[in-house]
Amino acid sequence: MRTTSLNARTTTLSTNHGEDHVQRIADDRVVLTIEEAAQRLGIGRTTMYALVMNGDIRSVTIGRLRRIPVRCLTEYVNALLSDDTTATAA
């Protein structure tokens, strides 16, 4: 595994099942790709697409690109926490 630092971004190259995967972690960005958002939540890409298409997680379109604002991920997790708190209290 090789790690290099570029403008507050870390690029990690690793081999998984013979394929090279590039993983970018950018804490300073306002929007993330579907894959990056899924990784940040610790879920799969397919699950992330389902949450976006169902409207559970809001997204924006920039040109032809679908992006997830970081604050929408936070809103989603907070909603899960409040739903869990409400269900526990009832």
Automatic annotation (TrEMBL):
Pfam families: HTH_17. It comes from the Bacteria. Residues 31-78 form the Helix-turn-helix domain. InterPro entries: HTH_17, SinI_DNA-bd. One of its GO terms (molecular function) is DNA binding. NCBIfam families: excise. This is Excisionase family DNA binding protein. It comes from Catenuloplanes atrovinosus.
